[in-house]
Design goal:
It is a single chain. This protein is of the alpha+beta class. The protein is 29% helix and 38% strand. It has a domain at 26-72. It has two helices and four strands. Strands 1-2 form a two-stranded antiparallel ribbon. Strands 3-4 form a two-stranded antiparallel sheet. The chain is elongated and about 60 Å long. It starts with 6 loop residues before the first strand and ends in a 5-residue tail after the last helix.
């Protein structure tokens, strides 16, 4: 999927002191069987990417990734 990046901001304490913090994206390594390729592929996808794969189907998502020139593992 397209690169999900961390968000940045401040952690605000009870006394209102602000320190830098970051919100890391919820990315996971998932293995999918792709019928059109007849093999399993390992993708690093965000939670939103998993929902997109569920909605569109793995074949459509992999075809779009290959059209963009992304490499599959």
């Amino acid at each position: 999927m397209l690169g999900t990046t961390p968000g940045f901001g401040h952690a605000v304490s009870h006394s209102h002191r602000r320190t830098k913090r970051r919100w890391d994206p919820n990315v996971q390594r998932r293995r999918y069987y792709v019928p059109s390729l007849r093999r399993r592929v390992t993708l690093t996808v965000s939670a939103r990417g998993i929902r997109t794969i569920d909605r569109l189907g793995i074949d459509v998502v992999v075809a779009r990734m290959l059209a963009r020139g992304e490499r599959l593992r």
